[in-house]
Specification:
This protein has 441 residues and is mostly helical. 81% of the residues lie in helices and 0% in strands. It binds 4-fluoro-L-phenylalanine and sodium ion.
């Protein structure tokens, strides 16, 4: 039991929960990471494996987190202590540590999106790719990056401090619809560009040879990306589901959330690639700076590019914000539930600590890349793997009963879900973890 005696917070509405989870899922992962993972890992071939993993790994794994959260009504550390024993009860700590690490560099990248929004307003994008690159390098690390990282964290702290209903739920109800409308609008615009058909061909027709030749890198990248983009493997969905009333259909909510996240990632590709092809820029250009170099250069080249860029980067900043608040809520919920700390105090203290941890990433791009790779291909996958083993193999009855709460008897669906967790999810995560570790070292 938690120490605090006030009743635990809850979402006001089902839509509020879904928006919050969509807000968490849709973020830099969709817009910053996804298109350039596609570019780096071989175009449509990567897209295909990614979509497959979303369906067979992401969906069952999300339900695992939902079930644990709703059943225990606690933060990830408390939840794991409640349902597991021995070393397994410490798995929640991996989640908290991962949240800390991810938010520390995520906020730095979010800071860049603020910088590039402002740059658009000043008509500051540089059409020459070389110049755009040096501009990015000078803005990405150093005092400017640290200040914007601080600004972003201050906003995150402000929202989380107001709590579930008045903070997070209210914020996402504005942010999520805005993200959806703007993304679709920009894709429609990108459709009219000269380079669109070439871009669609690149993005949508898979080259099977690439999968055969590069599966060792495509597989962990696609699994890691599936987890990252759905906010899995670090207890966000445990935490958000812990604020649910008991009568929701979790499978339906999960399908809606995944549908939105996948649609936004997919549509982002329909924006980014036509813009790049129109400006004559190679999409295979990898690295953390990707959208800030090639896409910014493309904005420097296009008519009214400053305006498009401002809208684009502004939307990315909003998407990053709705994800960052979920990362922070994982840690904050732990301190509130288990330590009885006041929410506002918790938000300021934890946000401050995360800000400090992010300073290395704000001073050195190489470090940021290392943090990102480590969190994405190792920590998230490890957390997801351990939780899936625990729930799939030793808590399956409890899990099936909890999934069925609010929907009635699941029949064969419940069994199918548990077996999906037991074999495909665990297998893919083990392989991805091994390949990810090999690649990291
Ligand atoms: N899902 C977010 C994105 O795609 O940007 C990132 C993220 C948020 C990852 C929360 C993990 C997480 F726990
Ligand atoms: Na995402």
């Amino acid at each position: 039991m938690g120490i605090a005696d006030a009743p635990r917070e809850q979402w006001a509405t089902r839509v509020g929960f879904i928006f919050a989870a969509v807000g968490s899922a849709v973020g830099l992962g969709n817009i910053w990471r996804f298109p350039f993972q596609v570019g780096q890992e071989g175009g449509a071939a990567f897209l295909l494996i990614y979509l497959l993993f979303i369906a067979i790994i992401g969906f069952p794994a999300m339900l695992v987190e939902f079930v644990v959260g709703r059943y225990t009504e606690r933060n990830p550390v408390g939840a794991l202590e409640e349902i597991a024993s021995g070393v397994w009860s410490y798995v929640g700590w991996i989640f908290i540590a991962t949240g800390f690490i991810i938010l520390s560099y995520y906020s730095v990248v979010a800071g860049w999106t603020i910088r590039y929004t402002l740059l658009g307003l000043q008509d500051g994008y540089l059409a020459d790719a070389g110049e755009a690159e040096s501009q990015f390098v000078s803005l990405a690390s150093g005092l400017d990056a640290i200040l914007l990282h601080a600004l972003f964290m201050a906003v995150v702290i402000g929202i989380v401090a107001y709590g579930i209903q008045r903070g997070i739920e209210l914020a996402v109800k504005v942010m999520v619809p805005a993200i959806i409308v703007i993304t679709v609008g920009m894709a429609a615009y990108a459709f009219t560009l000269e380079g669109a058909s070439e871009a669609y061909a690149y993005y949508l027709s898979p080259d099977w040879g690439v999968i055969a030749a590069e599966w060792q890198s495509i597989l962990p990248a696609a699994a890691g990306q599936a987890f990252f983009t759905l906010s899995l493997g670090m207890g966000v969905m445990i935490t958000y589901a812990s604020y649910l009333a008991q009568d929701r259909n979790l499978a339906e909510d999960g399908a809606i959330i995944i549908g939105f996240d996948t649609a936004i990632a997919f549509v982002t590709g329909l924006i980014v690639f036509p813009i790049l092809f129109t400006a004559g820029i190679d999409p295979a250009d990898p690295g953390a700076g990707a959208i800030f170099v090639s896409l910014a250069a493309a904005f420097g080249d296009l008519t009214l590019g400053w305006l498009l860029g401002t809208i684009f980067f502004g939307t990315v900043a909003i998407a990053a914000l709705s994800s960052a608040i979920s990362l922070m809520e994982v840690v904050v919920s732990y301190v509130i539930d288990e330590r009885g700390v006041d929410r506002k105090v918790a938000a300021v203290a934890i946000g401050g600590a995360i800000f400090l941890l992010g300073i290395p990433s704000a001073t050195d791009l190489v470090l940021l890349d290392l943090f990102d790779l480590f969190a994405d291909q190792i920590l998230l996958v490890l957390g997801g793997l351990l939780l899936s083993i625990l729930v799939g193999w030793s808590l399956s009855d409890l899990a099936i009963a909890e999934l069925g709460r609010g929907t009635g008897d699941l029949g064969a669906y419940g069994t199918a879900w548990i077996w999906a967790v037991r074999i495909p999810v665990i297998l893919v995560l083990i392989v991805a973890l091994i390949l990810g570790i090999l690649e990291y070292w």
